[in-house]
Each structure stands twice: as structure tokens, then as C-alpha cells.
Amino acid sequence: MASKTDHEALLRRFEPIARYTQGDRFFPMDADPYVRACSLWVGRPGEDDVCLVPHGKLTLDLLAERRRDEFGSVYYLRFTNPQEFKDTIRQNARRRRESRRDFRAGRGRLARVGYVSRISDTLFSIALLARGRVPGSTAAAGRAAYAGIVAENEHYTYHGRVLRQDGWVVLQYWFFYAFNDWRSGFYGANDHEADWEKVFVYLSESPSGELTPEWTAYSSHEYEGDAIRRRWDDPELEKVGEHPVVHVCAGSHSNQYTAGEYLTEIELSFLAPLARVLGAARKFWRETLRQYGSDDAEPGRDGQKPTIFRIPFVDYARGDGLTIGPGGDKEWDTPRLLGPPPSWATNYRGLWGLYTRDPFEGEDAPAGPMYNRDGSVARPWYDPVGWSGLDKVPPPTETLRTVWEQRAAVTARRAKLQAEVEEKSHQLRGLGVEMVAARGQPHLRKLHEAHRERIGELAEDVARLRAQVAADEVLSESLEGYADRVRAGEREPARAHISRAQQPASETKLRASRLAEMWAAASVGLMLIVFVLLAVYERGEYLTFALAAAISLFLFVEASFRGWLTNLVTSATVGLAVVAALILFYEFFWRIVVVAVLTLGVYILWDNLRELRR
Amino acid sequence: MTRPSGTTRSWPVRANGLLLVLQAAGLAGIGAYDIYQVDWQEIQQQIEFEATLSPELTEAAEQAFVVALILGLPTILAVLAALGFFLLFRVGWLLAMIVQALTLLACLLLYSEWETVLYQEPVFIYPVMLYCILMVLYLNSSDVRAAFQVKPRAGARRREARGL
Predict the structure, then answer these.
(1) Residue A300 and residue A306: Cα distance in Å, rounded?
(2) Quick check: pTM over 0.80?
């Protein structure tokens, strides 16, 4: 077993370089000073929350004490108390306004999405008033508290862990942030105290013990699987020497491979049934009617939940702020090792910050590196290889062996199947002979029928087995071909595993005019005002026309800004065609029925006569 | 106007061009028929000798005017769209869809409000509606859209530009 020093050396050899966005105010820190600045609380169902350890008294050792409580109890830390920081917040208000100038949102998120998303966003914002959420002053108090910790001891630390799984050596870099101020600082979805993010590097080990970096996986919101993984030779993965570069999103601390601005859409899964209906209608339109449809709107692809109501937020990973890591503005301090797991990581299953009781959980603080919010063990901790979808990929040093093993397994399976085919074919032939012999003998009628049934079943079985044998033969050849390619040093394309990677917004999108942005910000509210004014002042016969004209005008302007004029014209024309079709059905229903029946009759006649002529 | 690069004049494109010419001719014919139905000589005589018009003639002239007005624009656009199809201009497809939208809108307007603008039910709207529905389905079919959508998707262009 390698020593702590070896692990630390290994972690430092491949430690990432984190590039932040200008205006970001929270950076990876040691969990110890954070916990010392916190109080420990418990929330029990139907009771007021109780403070177990007050501010200034809590330590990692105290946090690690095992506690028993009733079902539904939630333990949580409180990093900030806005009351305590009242004066500091006021004093810092001016400084904060100045620091805001460091960050410019650029083209707003609303200008990048359509009306449905904008209306959903409005509803989401209104819902924040009703949902539990981090109070407005908490972010300011968090900044003040973090500034206090940094003033006492400026440090940039990650928590590291080295483990082996499925032949891989996994280096885990856990970044702990005191606060996630995505909503209050960067127009994002949520704020919460504490944030645990991670970057994993996967190494393969040669027989001589040499370690080679093969893959990386960066945490990004709730994504997992192939999409978050990049191969070491992928051009998208930026590296400085042996250090992968991470572009950290402002406020949310989500990690990206490329600098840029990412549109992150939060999905409302409770609207999934509605989206499924829409998906079925779209499928009918595209496949049955063979009509054109946009691929982007197709639900259910690449593991996406099928929902049309997505709320857009922009993740700013510009990389123009502080750089932490080898050769950066700041160097990493000595990592705090999580292997073997310290007792505060294993014993404390509660939240690492304020518990707001948000039903969507977005505003609740996360649990520690080892756990989910509900106290269950988190997958990145117990299955880091499976978390990034690497569990189906053998390390390069084991690929050839795995291929040969698989080929041997297929060959053995094929031999077994072949034997089964022969046995069943033999049975089949025997039954066939018996059936022929029994034919024409009335007293053997029952036997004849039983044989016929059994022959049918056996023939089906034999056909299925033969198909499996044939498929295995092809598979075996493919495995042999693959083994040759591996021996020749050929590798699969670096991005073959990625079906839909997150991409930053293109330059063209970001270059949209100020006017488009203003329109995006104002249009939903303006539309509602126009509707109300029309309903109040125009109640006569022209109200419908006025409303239709207003909607058309808004849609036309929107489509022009977004370059969707073709889609708008198509949708409007299809809509008019549907109305016209309904009118025709209404006016000529019986005539349509008669014509349809006549057409069917003529077709059948023609088809039958054509057969006669052959 | 831009041409869809690398596009040859395929069968669906040619067929659509011809169908649009047929539509333009049909719409123009309906307008001409309505105008032909009006006794313009009688109108001229009544204006010259009586200085007033009989209600029947006024209604007939108004109907011809309304029909010609609301079908005139789609007729002209249909000719332009047909030219777009024959000359393979990308805007041809968009124009063709706009023609269908305007024609359907005119038909729906006449269907719902004919009593206030016309003196007799315009029966021609039903075959026109049927024609437009079939045209919409054909224009929006994958074959026709493919003939006018040869540009690679934005995502593909980005990936290409990034050399991925």
C-alpha cells in the first residue's frame, strides 16, 4: 500500500490548474477553517431547528461525532449569520458595487432562449418567493465571512484522494468552496452555503508500475456518464505539462473544459408527461406524415429528460480571472488528503451549509464529498469509474487481455450453442420422421398432432440458436480485428464516446445586438401589459383580431431577432392548414366519407384486376 | 438572395414550381372570373346617365374588388416563389410557404366574415383551401425541405471549425 507521501506526490504531479472568471469571489479552501466558522444545527420534523454547537466552538473532530436522531431529522451547518455581519455588509456594500464592475454578464441568458423558457423563468423566479431559499443578505454575509478567513490565512487548497478501481488509478481532486453565489452574483439558478466540486484524473499502470494519465472527468452540475469525460489526447482538454486545465464557472463552480459561456438548462421533470405527449405528436408529424422537424427540439436524446419547459441559465466560465495551480497567479497549498477517509468525512452525513427546505433542493447546501443530501453514499465516492462512464473501458494495458478473454468467452459460448443446435437438430429430424410415419394412421392422430406442435417449437429454437451462432461468429471475427488494431497501437477516436458535449455559446450568438437583449428582457412583461390594455380598452368585436395581431407582431419581432423567421412562417402556415382542414371536415364530412370509401373501392378493384393481368 | 449551394434542380423542386404556377393561375383566374361577372358596361351607363349605381351592381363590384384585393398579393408572390424554385433561390421556399399562409388566411377570412364583405357565399374557397393544405404538406415534406436545406447545421459547422 502506498504511503500518504506517495499519494500526495501523485496528486501534486497531475493537480489541475483552475481558471476562474473575473468577479468570482470564492475559491477552493480547506474544510477546517470553514467548519470552525460554522455552527451545527439539527432540524427535526415539526420542531424549531436546534443549535447543537454554536459559532466558534465547532471543529472537525466535533463534527465527526456520531449522532443518533429520529427519521426525517436533518443536520446542517450554518456558515453565516446575516445579523452578525450587518455592519460588515453595510461597509462592504460600496466595495461590492465596485467589484461588480469586474464582471459583465454580456448578452443575457434571456436573449439566448425562446418565449416558453422565458415565461417558465418568470414562474421559476416567482416560485422562489414561496420555496425555501437562501436569504438575500446571506451571500453578502458569506463573502464577508470568507474574506475574514482569507485575511487570517490566505490559502488555496484542494482535498485529494487516490484509489484503485477496475484497473484504474483514480486521482480525486475535491474543491471545497465556502459559498455558491451563482444566483445573487451571476444571474444563475441558486445560492447555497458550501459547495463541493470535483475533478478526477484516471491513470493506467504499466506492469513496471509506470503511471500514465488516460482520462479526466470534471463535475458539472448533476451531469454524469460519458459526457463529462475527456481522453488525455482530446484536443478539447487543455493541459499545461501534465496538469489539466479546468475552467470554473462563476458562482456555480461547475467545471468546463473550454473557456466560454455555457447555456445550462434546468429541467422541470414534473412536466415530463406533457412533454411525452408533445414528443408523440412530433414523432407522428415527422415519421408518419414524413414532415420536416427540428432535431434540437426532439426530446429524450442522450439521456435528456423529455421536457419542453427548461429554464435557461448562463454559466460563465470565461477563464479571465484568478488562475490557481502550477504556474498560475496562486499556487495550490499542500493538499488535505481524504484517503484513508477522515472521520469528519465518514461520520458526518449532514449538509455543509444552510438547510432551506427547498423542495427542488437547489438552495439547500450539499452534503460532504462522501454523501448525497439524503445521507446515502454518493456515487463519485464509491464508484468514480462508473460515475464518468469509464467502467466499460479497460485500461490500455489491459485492453488486449480483455479482448482475448472476451473472444475466448464468445468462442466457448458458440461451441456450446453449436452443440445445442446439433442436439436439437437431431431431435427435430427424429420427430419429423416419426410424424411422417404416423401420417394416414387414424389411431395415431393425437401423436401426430403433438409431434407437429413440438416440431414447430423445436424448429423455432433451432433457428434462433443458429442465428446466435452466426452472430457470435461475426462478433468473434470483429474481436480478432479489434485485437489486431490494439496490437498495432491504433486507438479509437478520442471523442467517440461523446454523443452530445456541452459547448460554449458561439461567437455569433454572443455578438447579438444590444437591442435584441433589451427585447428579450422586456418582451414577456410588455406582452402581458399589451394584453391587459387591449382587454380593458377594446372589448368590441375587434378584440380577437387585436389580440391575434399583437401576438403575431411579438412573434414576428422575436423570430426576426433570433433568425427563426422560417420556423415561424412554417408553424403559422401549418396551423392555418390544420384549421382549414377542420373546416373542410366540418363542411363536407359525409362527402369526404363517400369519396374516401369510393377511393378505397376503386383502389381495391384496381389492385385485384392488376393481379389478374399478371 | 442566395442559392442553395450544390443543389441541382431536382424533381420535387420542379414539381413545386409548376404547382405554384398552377396556384397563381388559379388565383388569378378566380379574381378575373369575379371581375368578369360584373357588368361593367351597365355600371358605366348607370354612372353616365343616372349618376347612381343600383345596390346589386354595387355589391357585385365590391365583391370583385375585395376578392381581387385579397387574392392579388398571394398571386404575385406565387409567381415570384415559382421563379425562386425554377432558379433555385433559397428564398423561394419561404415565399411559397408565405403564399400558402396568405391564401389560407384569405380563405378563412372569407369563410368566417363573408356575409359582411360579400353578397354571396364564395364557394371557391373550399377547393383553394384543399389545394393549399396539400401544398403545405408537400412543401414541408422532408424531400422538398432537404432540397432547400443543404447548409450544414450550426453545430456541425462549429465542430468543423474547431477541427473536432
Answers:
(1) 5
(2) no
